[in-house]
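Researcher: Can you fold this with adenosine-5'-diphosphate in place?
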Amino acid sequence: MELRVNSIDKTFSGFHALDNVSLDIRSGELIALLGPSGSGKTTLLRLIAGLDFPTGGAIHFGDEDASRKSVQERNVGFVFQHYALFRHMNVLDNIGFGLKVRPAATRPPKSEIHRRALELLDLVQLSGLEKRFPNQLSGGQRQRVALARALAIEPKVLLLDEPFGALDAQVRRDLRRWLREIHDRTGHTTVFVTHDQEEALELADRVVVMSRGRIEQVGSADDIYDTPNSPFVYGFIGESSRLPVRVEDGQVWLEDRTIGLEAHNAPAGPAELYFRPHDIDVLEGCGGCIAGTVTATRRVEARRRIELAVGGPGHRVEIELPADSPVAEGTRIAFRPRAWKLFPAH
Ligand code: ADP
Ligand code: MG
């Protein structure tokens, strides 16, 4: 099922939770909504589900305008972080619940519900646990049962709101791979909400980066990471360094000298230079480079992160070097970014 979110606005007593959000989701796609807390991810997911209604704009399921349809009519399945299972029902009854409560006309026979629930239990790799109650399962197992329950109604669209948010890091990583496998096998159109960039970049076909009720950028993990199109995305995804600079005569200037970066297409005047700490070349001499004094170093996984004071007061950037680089505080280092982008100063 293809989904089209068309110029959606959502206000809560005057507060703009979503501001002119448009998004096309392809059939069978796994898409991640990624953004900091409060950016509007859950609100957008709830509007897609039909748990709430937009203030303006429309949501299409395929060719149909679903904006005013109920959750049941939209036939969506969802899993939330704290979408508790029914405590008094065993695993199999939990999975079959959505089918059991259907009106008689569309309800499958009991034996069919049983068969389908067992099949889903197998899909989520919990065969043998059908008689267990939720309090006899681990957190990860519970979320897998919740996913089986969501899939049982054969939803047109699967909506997941931080489903692994409450689990510890290793379990999250396992479930992430597992979810991707299930998705590839079942092919549901899936919208996955997370504030965890690693989760989004690893799991999704496309990532939708959100901030303050707006979509900042939509793209593959490579697009988002390699070509961030705003200071927000640069800062939110991965590590970035920022430096106030100036564009003049088609060159980037730091204080009173050029730094060896050409910027013929950028407007002249103050600008902000963004680059990734690891995406730099260290230079021996400095004929057009950024030079600074090491003010701090710290070990980050396989690399060493170096903080440099460069140029004017308060101008600090981080660069990354191999972990075995001997850099004492006070050392002078010259470098030039390999990949970088200029944004207007604000
Ligand atoms: P996220 O899921 O990205 O953390 P939400 O969609 O939950 O963000 O919330 C976006 C913004 O809308 C937040 O500022 C939140 O406080 C506000 N908001 C969400 N739901 C309501 C509501 N029912 N009433 C008032 N404000 C709300
Ligand atoms: Mg949320």
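Model: Folded with adenosine-5'-diphosphate in place. The CA atoms of residues 286 and 334 lie 6 Å apart.
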